[in-house]
Write a structure and sequence with these properties.
Shape: globular
Oligomer: single chain
Helix content: 10-25%
Number of strands: 11
Number of helices: 4
CATH superfamily of the largest domain: Vaccinia Virus protein VP39
Low-confidence stretches: none
Strand order of the largest sheet: 7-8-9-11-10
Order of helices and strands: EEEEEEHEHEHEHEE
Mean pLDDT: 91
Number of domains: 2
Structural class: alpha+beta
Length: about 220
């Protein structure tokens, strides 16, 4: 006899959240830290005994305090030297101050900013895109997300130095079709690019996650 734990229904705390590839997992949630509707999405912060506080946006597990592996992966997994480099981060978090000696946080739509930088011919050594994961399908309701991703990719290439690198997340390693579609998009950009990918275990996701490094293809001499 294979005995399974009982599913808890009607609890005041929702502990069941799906993985990206559609499997139901139970988290050890013991507290609702925050739960509010913004103008754009539902924002939840739930406390897990294992993972600490978990940020959930419109039902999507985003990041937990345990997930240093995610941050390290989307920054190049410790292989890059950021000293004296120009870095553009799309998404990300806010520090204690919006402006410091070596950084500035802009709270605005990134697309107009990217277009402005491209027009000004401002270039960066690194562009880190932490806006959204790769869509999981090509259904009509996902079309706008794919268009958004293509626009961000093209604009990012315009502000990336010839020897620069673009870092971003992909999606769950099991979503091979979605990842293949994303890689096909990379072949349709305004400039030729090459890429590599890395598979990382992000603790609170309870699944392996793919991260991409993209760079402009060097011209053959």
């Amino acid at each position: 006899v294979h005995r399974l734990p009982a599913i808890v229904r009607g609890d005041t705390i929702d502990r069941y959240w799906p993985t990206a590839d559609g499997r139901l997992v139970e988290y050890d949630i013991d507290e609702v830290v925050y739960d509010e509707e913004s103008s754009y999405q539902n924002i939840k912060i739930l406390h897990s005994k294992q993972f600490g506080n978990i940020l959930i946006l419109s039902g999507d597990v985003n990041l937990a305090e345990s997930d240093l592996a995610y941050t390290q992966a989307i920054m190049g997994s410790g292989k890059e030297d950021y000293a004296d480099k120009e870095v553009l981060i799309l998404g990300g978090d806010v520090l204690d101050n919006l402006k410091g000696e070596c950084y500035q946080v802009l709270i605005e739509d990134c697309i107009p900013v990217l277009k402005r930088y491209a027009k000004e011919e401002r270039m960066f050594d690194y562009v880190i895109n932490d806006l959204t994961a790769v869509p999981i399908s090509t259904s009509p309701e996902e079309d706008s997300t794919w268009e958004f991703l293509r626009m961000i990719l093209d604009l990012s290439m315009k502000v990336l130095k010839p020897d620069g690198k673009y870092f971003t997340q992909g999606n769950c390693v099991n979503l091979t079709e979605a990842l293949t579609l994303y890689e096909e998009q990379l072949g349709r950009l305004s400039c030729p690019v090459e890429f590599s990918k890395e598979v990382v275990c992000v603790p609170s996701y309870m699944e392996l996650w793919v991260f991409y490094t993209i760079w402009k293809k060097r011209s053959e001499v």
